């Protein structure tokens, strides 16, 4: 009898030790990820507190986008490289699809606050998001030395036929590039120069393509393995830039950046790099003043308080009930359902 009790005690002790080992290991991995992000973007990027044992962070609630019919409005994922750069499509494309699913998870988590589901509409192949492998016509130095790398990449993509008015393109440019704002190992740049247009109408200028959300991979030695720093930052960057192409956010929005010059970001919460939660909050000028709404650093928000650019069920008479709203069923690039 005593042997049986001893045996059970030993088994329980082993199980407890294994759980502790996994929890500690997961926390160490999480802390390393945090350090990598801080180093990468050069500021105090505060990410969610460690949520528990086992390493199941789940901070993006990953969810696959919906597959759109070719005749419908949709997004298109592109891996693009200069003509003389190595082809890493097979290595990178699975990562791009995962990051996109995580970005879609942020969107849908916000919609679920209103008991609605929301998914980005994307081109698919065999039921999975399709990524195009595109070789640009010019050598790497052309894009690196261009006065406007953004426009150089876009111009050549359009010459190759990526100019459909029903499509918005999410582009990972696998080359260095000197796009403005590149200061770390990943540069993000949205290149749609439309608007402003805040009318709540299906013919809003942001409700049609072609548009391009660009992400530049630079400093190859830093991100050649696509470590956890990229894994945690890029889903936010993807959704941020893609949201710009859909019209987030308008200068007339209650919390738009308005210091010195009208901007297209929000100020009701701190930028994510400073502990905020809204993926669209960012400074457009020196001395920008930010609020402290939606505190907690987690989950990431697709419109803190849902009053600037995304609300599936806005209150009658509110700003988003009468102005362009990415959460409106008029938005051709997001699929909504109750």
Describe the structure.
With 338 residues, the chain is of the alpha/beta class. The protein folds into three domains: 2-55; 66-245 and 318-337, Collagenase (Catalytic Domain); 249-309, no CATH class. The protein is built from seven helices and ten strands. The strands form three sheets. Strands 6-2-7-9-8 form a five-stranded mixed β-sheet, sandwiched between helices. Helix 2 (89-111) crosses helix 6 (228-245). The protein starts with a helix and ends with a strand.
Helix percentage range: 25-40%
SSE topology string? HEEHEEEEHHEEEHHHE
Q: Based on the structure given, which CATH architecture of the largest domain is correct?
A: 3-Layer(aba) Sandwich
* Rg estimate, integer Å: 22 Å
Unreliably modeled segments: 20-57, 179-186, 218-228
Spatial separation of the terminal alpha carbons: 58 Å
**CATH class call of the largest domain:** Alpha Beta
Oligomeric composition of the shown chains: single chain
Q: Give the structural class.
A: alpha/beta
Biggest sheet architecture:
5 strands, mixed
Mean pLDDT: 80
What portion of the residues fall into strands of 2 or more residues?
A: 5-15%
User: Strands of the biggest beta sheet: in what spatial order?
Assistant: 6-2-7-9-8
Given the C-alpha coordinates, what overall shape results?
globular
CATH topology of the largest domain: Collagenase (Catalytic Domain)
- Put simply, the count of helices is 7
The count of DSSP E runs of length 2 or more, i.e. the number of strands, is: 10
Number of separate structural domains: 3
């Amino acid at each position: 009898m005593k042997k049986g009790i001893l045996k059970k005690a030993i088994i329980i002790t082993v199980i407890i030790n294994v759980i502790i080992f996994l929890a500690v290991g997961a926390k160490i991995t999480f802390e390393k990820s945090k350090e990598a992000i801080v180093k990468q973007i050069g500021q105090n990027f505060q990410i969610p507190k460690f949520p528990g044992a086992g390493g199941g962070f789940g901070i993006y609630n990953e969810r696959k986008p919906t597959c759109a019919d070719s005749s419908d409005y949709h997004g298109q994922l592109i891996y693009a490289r200069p003509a003389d750069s190595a082809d890493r499509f097979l290595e990178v494309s699975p990562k791009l699809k995962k990051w996109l699913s995580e970005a879609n998870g942020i969107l849908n988590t916000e919609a679920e606050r209103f008991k609605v589901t929301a998914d980005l509409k994307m081109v698919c192949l065999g039921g999975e998001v399709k990524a195009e492998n595109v070789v640009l016509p010019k050598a790497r130095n052309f894009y690196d030395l261009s006065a406007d790398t953004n426009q150089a990449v876009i111009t050549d993509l359009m010459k190759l036929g990526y100019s459909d008015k029903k499509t918005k393109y999410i582009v990972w440019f696998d080359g260095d590039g000197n796009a403005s704002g590149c200061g770390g190992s990943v540069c993000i740049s949205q290149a749609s120069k439309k608007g402003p247009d805040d009318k709540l109408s299906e013919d809003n200028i942001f409700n049609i393509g072609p548009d391009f959300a660009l992400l530049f991979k630079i400093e190859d030695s830093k991100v050649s393995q696509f470590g956890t720093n990229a894994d945690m930052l890029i889903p936010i960057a993807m959704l941020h830039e893609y949201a710009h192409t859909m019209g987030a956010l308008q200068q007339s929005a209650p919390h738009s950046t308005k210091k010195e010059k009208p901007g297209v970001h929000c100020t009701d919460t701190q930028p994510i790099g400073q502990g905020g939660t809204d993926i669209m909050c960012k400074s457009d000028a020196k001395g920008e003043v930010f609020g402290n709404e939606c505190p907690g650093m987690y989950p990431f928000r697709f419109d803190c308080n849902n009053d600037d650019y995304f609300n599936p069920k806005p209150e009658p008479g509110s700003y988003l009930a009468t102005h362009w709203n990415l959460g409106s069923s008029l938005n051709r690039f997001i699929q909504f359902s109750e």
